[in-house]
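Hey team,

Filing this mostly as a record. A colleague (T.K.) asked me to run one chain through the structure pipeline before their review meeting, and I want the input and output archived in the tracker in case anyone asks later how it was produced. No errors, nothing strange. Just documentation.

Input sequence:
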Amino acid sequence: MYKNFCLFLFFTITAFHSFRSSAQNRLESTGNVGIGTTSPVVKLSVYGSSDDSAAISLQSGSNSRFYIQQGGSLLKLGGITPGAAGVINISNMGRVGIGTSAPTTALDVNGDFRLGVNTGGTAYSIGFTRTVGAQLYGTTSAGLSLGGDVAGVDAVVMPGGNVGIGTSNPAHKLDIAGGSVNIGWGANIAYRAGSYVSIGNMSYTNTPYIAFNAFLTTSDVATSKNLVTPTYNAGSGLIIRGEAGGSGLHFLQRNYANGTVPYDVNSFTDALTLTSSGNVGIGTADTKGYKLAVNGEAIFTRVKVEPFSGWPDYVFQPGYELSTLSEVENYIKANRHLPDVPSAVEVEKEGLDVGQMNKKLLQKVEELTLYIIEQQKSILSLQQEMKVLKEEKKNITYRR
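Output structure:
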């Protein structure tokens, strides 16, 4: 027993002396160990003269080696080949890369990843879970909650597919409560409902729009163009476009008839315009300040103008000065139109005020009525005179 102990002590001292006296290894009295260095600064210092030469190899039985190595500014963890990129790489700037040797953020993952468990429980998972592909889901009947705090959640995804933002109980596929949705501007940046309706904002002209069968494909300030491409080129398109600053609306329409796409929005017809002051233009964007401006024909089943001051009932007032027929005749001969009625030249130049014209026409009808009444009185008077003359003639004949 004593002999064996002496042999063990001899070999231990020899091995220790051999390790301690090596030119590349050192075990100091402080307990610091140096491998590849004679100046260990911590409990274990490993030094290599080149990148990846300062490495630690771990292996158990027949398993492949697992390396911990330093290469340049990276600490590499994992991998089965010396000098190769590690599975996890930590830079000297504190950035961690998984699947990448050049992390650009605090945690940079190149590939799919999972948080939580993949089966059972109430954990949520990201990445390869139930099926192939990155997924985000909850396994509970309450769905997946995102963000929020103890007082509520920012968003939820329910098991049936409904998404709630600002509400934990969405009743629709997308339910937004207590907030708004912002759609950026430019081509192909829009909310689309199916293949025929889109809502967005045009970069050129900086105007919002709602388009029907007219999807914005180009909006370029440099070329001053807003171009749209229809889903159904044999049909027609309608664009409701606002003015910059929200000062009005334009309803733009075009029949495509299988023309050459894309179409410039400026080639659409301004079918209807609603100005910021409430004026409406049909067939024109310039209402001339009127509440309703129509460039083209119009048909009505009824038109009512009210209220209207100065209605010509004053013609029947006792003090109304009615021109004589001789005066009217002389005016017509001189001007070729009735007094107080616009001439053809005036109508062609200024247009016609329907309300004022009806007022003037009624005035002339009422004046004509007064003329007829006066003539009727004259006729009755003449008839009475004729009757008297006939009676006198009859008496004269009878005396003879």
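Quick notes for T.K.: The chain has a mean pLDDT of 81. The CA atoms of residues 76 and 86 lie 5 Å apart.
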